[in-house]
What we know:
single chain, Umud Fragment, subunit A, alpha+beta, globular, about 20% helix, about 30% strand, 7-stranded antiparallel beta sheet, 4-stranded antiparallel beta sheet
Amino acid sequence: MTDNAKIEKELLAISEKENTLEEQEKPHAPPLNAREEWTEFLKTAMIAVVLALLVRTFFFEPFNIPSGSMKPTLEVGDYLFVYKPAYGFSRFSFPLGMAPIEGRVWSGEKEPRRGDVIVFKLPTNTRIDYIKRIVGMPGDTVQVIGGKLYINRQLVPRDPVGLKRVEDGGTITTMMEYIETLPGGIMHRIYEESDDGPLDNTEEYVVPDGHYFAMGDNRDNSQDSRVLSHVGYIPLENIVGRASFLFFSTNGHAHLAEFWKWPWTVRYERLFQKIGPVRPLMD
């Protein structure tokens, strides 16, 4: 070994020794005591809660389906996310409707479209959330005659799919399924139990400016805009957001404590389904 190589080797050994001594001399943080660990846990939990609230307030809010008024599109036991920025924000986009906002903000001129499934605050009681499908736009004339929907005095076509045995609250009812095509070629499925029910022959409704007319897809089992004293026309301000997609669905045949039944009560085929009508490709 040459003298230069020996010198380099000695210098490298000295450097490694110095680094080792520096590491040994560095002060080590003492372990956290029980109180400090609890404080760190609370900080992490608070950050998680704040982030969850921000996502829920500004982006996606969970919503569950308690009734069969939107069958066959939505089933009792479905859990979905409502996309809040779809039409901007109003005071009802925020908890308890306490935000000091008039009308809608940050909408970017995005407005609800015919066929959208929306979650909204019930105009007669804004503490209650409803979910329905928009069929009538501001200025439209809407009427139901003999179970058939008319918009601006034009019949909305519906094509029969076939009879369906539909369960609701333990009762089996036979209903006719149709594909309904709204103006603009927007298609979605509906159920009709008959064409002579209480809401199958209505007055003619004229949708006011800034309002929308919404109906349930289960036409004979839905309180919607046809019932002016309860729902009526939906102000744009009352719309919380657009139903986006299902993230969970259960048939309800297992109680919370019956965890061993859970895997057989999940409707796996419904998970992550997108909610919304079939729109023409050019739309």
